[in-house]
Write a structure and sequence with these properties.
Blueprint lengths: L1 H26 L40 H9 L12 H7 L34 E3 L6 E9 L5 E10 L5 E2 L6 E7 L5 E8 L6 E3 L3 E2 L1 E7 L14 E4 L3 E9 L7 E3 L1 H12 L3 H4 L12 E3 L10 E2 L11 H4 L3 H10 L58 H14 L3 E2 L5 H6 L12 E2 L17
Parallel strand pairs: 3-11
Antiparallel strand pairs: 1-12, 2-11, 3-4, 3-7, 3-8, 5-6, 5-9, 9-10, 13-14, 15-16
Helix pairs in contact: 4-8, 7-8
Length: about 450
């Protein structure tokens, strides 16, 4: 009897221990022996037996390459197991059809082909891009008045002017203007706010209690506090006063853009047909042509020049904003009126791919490199993509560079001559050109480089 009881107690103890160990193992996944977690990929399209996870490894070897083509070449040969760069459009057909590899679904990324320019340095030694801002104190001044409102009440009509642009009227539809009553002891009282809808730059306030008022706006510089200050106006009884509110840009920067630097960047934009470039082998139509990003006050926030992108294109006022500069440049060169690029002559428009025309592109008939079956003597790069500017756009770029401060050589030549020299398969010697400042751009032989 004693032996039986002892056996029974031992068996119960063993059973309890097994249950305890199993319970702890289920609660702590890390106690699993020999099995590691692995996460697959949801193969919703083009199912494959390829498994997007691999065996556990105690060591990882990193190999560095100078460019992505070299890396993908080593990946294809089996020298490396994992890449850290998106597959380029030109490699999709090769890699994604290989049964040894698996390509996931395409994902949007913030890749960009761009040219970045340092605004703080002169361009090619001749174009100052920045200039110090000249600021005048913000103030409000009353002008003429006329009879209005009942006794004890009055009104004002405020015109917003920017002192940094020659006191031009600010027609910003997103700016608000506010009239704040100033009570005894400089205590601020009731306020009336008007939106800038319509973009006239004039804010006609309704009748308010006569007295002293502070004028402030939402988007541009205001008078500094404390009160009283230069932005207070008197609202007279039974009168409507005309008030000019002289402001500045609301920016902490002491610098502003120089017009010649702006001309330079406009000229560069004319030298690429972006819609044709995105069809080339570099991006293989796997991108959108993004034309201009601007503030809301300019009427657009996303301006795509890719047809069917789903966003509104640029308004005609933006597309033609540079036409006056191009025409003025050709006038300064001595080009006759009938031969100028101008809105009046019908050749400063944007005919390409409506309803999404591209800014800074006047002709969609782009030139092409000789390697691509084109006819320009200077386009011999074997890796050239579509997107060379048209002869018209080369001329427009020349006009803007001329206004930016680059002289045309030889004396008496115009941008028509420069554009004519840009076509043809035979190299041109001593062709008309735009010249940079002496000594800024020189080759090894000491000869000045020209554009």
């Amino acid at each position: 009897m004693i032996s039986f009881l002892r056996f029974s107690l031992q068996a119960r103890t063993l059973s309890s221990s097994l249950i305890l160990i199993l319970a702890v193992s289920m609660a702590l996944p890390g106690l699993h022996i020999g099995i590691n977690n692995a996460h697959g990929i949801n193969q919703t399209s083009n199912p494959t037996n390829w498994l997007p996870f691999g065996p556990q490894s105690n060591n990882t070897v990193f190999q560095y390459y100078t460019d992505s083509p070299a890396m993908f070449s080593q990946f294809s040969s089996g020298s490396i197991d994992v890449t850290d760069w998106p597959v380029s459009p030109s490699d999709i057909g090769t890699l994604c059809t290989n049964p040894d590899f698996f390509c996931g679904s395409p994902q949007l990324q913030l890749g960009v082909f761009d040219l970045q320019i340092n605004h703080h340095s002169p361009l090619l030694g001749i174009v100052p891009q920045l200039m110090p801002r000249t600021l005048s104190p913000v103030h409000a001044s009353a002008g003429t008045s006329s009879a209005a409102c009942s006794t004890g009440f009055g009104s004002v009509s405020v015109t917003l002017e920017n002192q940094e642009t020659g006191n031009s009227v600010v027609t910003d539809p997103f700016n608000n203007m506010t009239l704040v009553q100033v009570l005894s002891g400089n205590v601020l009282g009731a306020r009336t706010t008007l939106p800038g809808w319509g973009g006239t730059g004039v804010y006609a306030f309704p009748c308010v209690v006569a007295g002293t008022y502070l004028v402030i706006n939402s988007e541009y510089a205001n008078c500094p506090f404390p009160l009283p200050n230069n932005c207070e106006v008197i609202v007279s009884s039974a009168q409507k006063s005309q008030v000019n509110f002289a402001t500045n840009y609301n920016s902490p920067s002491p610098w502003m853009l120089q017009q010649r630097g702006i001309y330079f960047r406009m000229a560069i934009a004319h030298l690429l047909n972006k819609q044709q470039f995105i069809t080339g082998p570099t991006v293989s139509s796997q991108a959108l042509c993004v034309d201009i990003f601007g503030s809301r006050v300019q009427g657009f926030s996303n301006a795509f020049c890719s047809p069917g992108a789903g966003d509104p294109g640029l308004p005609s006022s933006v597309l033609q904003a540079e036409c006056s500069a191009i025409t003025s440049s050709e006038q300064a060169q001595g080009i006759s009126g009938g031969s100028q690029i101008s809105i009046g002559n019908g050749n400063c428009n944007h005919p390409n791919n409506p309803p999404h025309p591209e800014a800074y592109l006047l002709n969609n008939t782009s030139l092409a490199a000789i390697s691509a079956g084109g006819n320009v003597w200077w386009g011999t790069d074997l890796y050239s993509d579509p997107g060379y500017a048209s002869q018209t756009d080369i001329r427009a770029a020349c006009d803007l560079l001329f206004f930016a401060g680059f002289p045309i050589e030889p004396s008496g030549a115009t941008c028509i001559d420069v554009a004519n020299a840009s076509v043809g398969t035979s190299p041109v010697i001593n062709y008309p050109n735009l010249a940079a400042q002496t000594g800024v751009l020189q080759n090894h032989g000491g000869q000045q480089l020209v554009m």
